Amino acid sequence: MKNTTRLVHFFCILVAIYLQSVSCANNNGEFKLNLRSTDFGNTFYVAGKPFPMGTSRKTEDIVDLSRTFLRDGMVGSLLRNFEDMLRLQNAENTAHFKESNGTQNTNVFSLLKQSRGRYDVSLYCLNDTMQALLDMLARKPYALGMLDADTKVPSGILQGHYLWFGNYDECKAVESPIQPNGHKFTGQYCLTTTLQYISAFGSRPLLFGTCVPSSCSENDVKALVQSLIDNGSGAPKPTMAMCDKKPTYSTGAIIALVVCGILGMLVCAGTLTDVYLRYTDEGGHRKDTKRGNNGIVIQSNERTGLLSSASVTLDEGHLIGTTSQGKSQIYWTPMSKCSAFMTSFSFIKNTEKLMSTSTASSPLSSLNGMRVLSMWWVILGHNFELPMSNETVQNPLQATKIGQRFSFQAVLNGTFSVDTFFFMSGTLVTYLCLKDISKNQGRTRWGMFYFHRFWRLTPAFAFCLMIYATLTRHFVYGPYSIVYEAMMHYAPDPCQSSWWASLLYIQNFYPSSGRLDKICMGWTWYLANDMQFFIISPIFIVLLLRYRRAGLISCVAMIIACVFIRLMTAIEFGMYLPNQSVTKHTDDVYAHNPTYNRPYTRIAPYMVGILLGYLLYSNDCRARLNRVKVFIGWSLAIVLGMLPVYGLYHYYHDVTNESSLAVSALYISCSRLSWALAIAWIIYACATGYGGPVNNILSWKLWAPLGRLTYCAYLVHPVIITAYGYNQPAAFFFGDVVVIYMYLGNLVTSYAIAYIVSMVIEAPMMGLEKVFFNR
Q1: What is the largest CA-CA distance in the chain?
Q2: Secondary structure (DSSP) of 465-476
Q3: Which of 73, 113, 643, 658 is the most exposed, fewest CB within 10 Å of its CB?
Q4: Rounded to the nearest 5 degrees, what angle is found at the Cα of 718, between the Cα atoms of 750 and 769?
């Protein structure tokens, strides 16, 4: 009776477990695991979708990963097989391989596998592998290091952890003692794969690291892996092996290093020249009075949102000294072109320009704070995005759940920071150009208008592009260096074939119709759009100045056209919230982010900036508003700014909430215009005296130096983030504390590198423009 009762209870427990697993499988809200039987023919549910565990030619079984050789890694599996053979064979039937010198080496593995001719493994590799296995059994430290460095199956596989690296540095440090035949080997780190696809990973291959003797080639490693997983029938299972190689410097890399060396010498020579001129007079004698006020700065006409107002010192054409009464007095002593050329590279003088805060008192000084904060927002978004896209995260499925938080919506929708730059660019180009035309009695030099813009952007951009295209490989160390080499081998590097398109600012159209993953330095699509907007901006500026009504109509028409194009694009390609991914015409050349980097889909904020710039110029940054209008303006700005950023929380928080195409198209078409209007009010209120504490924060003088580094920080920060991730010994756990520390470190490092780039190339090029064009 007791036995019967126990059987009934046990049966009820099994039924309860089965029903619970079925109910979990039907819940699409989060990851569920469903066990349908007592054997290993199970079905996993990842993100609510069933994953069959059956092994086929293209799909592998996750459970098999934990019960096949992968549980011990390749070296551990070889050792296990070797121990089995030692137990089965005695000294009389042990196989021996003869080398050319007549010595014999025990090699059980090659007798069992190589004798059938299925695997092409070199003799040296087999013998060194066998020697390492024998030394592992003898507990020799170097051999145990190889075993320890080899990959073992980790946890978190179903969370997307499919890069199993082992220990790269431990493997590279392995060095065997000299063998009786005078030969020795070192540890060689390789990444291998035995699986073509794993459905739970989105059809990504599983990569695992292994530590083999240095005498083994990549083909040898492939054959060793095949010998472990093959059942002896049919063709060997497909494998791939990539071993660590010392990177060589290409011709392009050598040229880049030479250019960097030349620039470094120019900076040193320019700094020494500047120091000499500071403390000696024209006769070469030491000055009795110190040079004063060397860093007086005036504001020049920069015409873009990403760039800060340039700083121009007055000391290039004169010296400032003091009279006997202690008053400042200008002594004009024109500097020679040669001296002016050299001091343009002065590290000291350019740092003084950078650190000056005297330009932070203009009516548009609030743009300094907005520029810097927007740049920090861009870096924040990339700090979360790039580790995921670069596959340096060990828990990507779990990390995606962070997007369900309300507080994370500002990160998910960080692309609106780019619209802030578009808006600021339109505002500055219009306001400053109209001021310049007014100053010159209705005339301006349009040739210099365009040349200054090209010269301001291109040298620093070209320098960063050169470094990125030629030296990035040398910034990567460890197991990810092999991953990077594989990416470059199997996917053509756009920097090698289409770098020129970036320097012509057409990368948002060519190559591959502007696909971000096909662009050299893909994040620079913004520069192409901004340059194209800049080229056509004089049309609207002149219309606003000469024909006010026609200018206003043309600007409003461009905004309406942009909104309409975004609306029709969203409908045509079936773009649904929240991800706005394309669901129709996916094979179309324009289906890759069709509303993201096309100028005709992003020009609306720029046109809003043009209108604001004209309004501020017309009113001379003055306005008379009562409290009601000010309150309404700030209220509307808050609503129009919050809706685009936090309006998608309903869909991100619960993935089962689906939006209609009409709602999606409405958001896609109007969200960026809404954000631009909100920012327009903030700048207008701050410029006309209604900004209050917001203006006090945005106009803080310390924003000015950081604002001058914005452009260089924009160019270098993705490289910093990528280099940090690719120099990790393993994929890192994506969590709040880790990512916050990463963000702070990447932010500071990006600005530090931006400072160096600015001093070496950006600031000197600005100085040379003044030397050659007497600006």
Answers
A1: 118
A2: HHHHHHHGGGG-
A3: 658
A4: 65
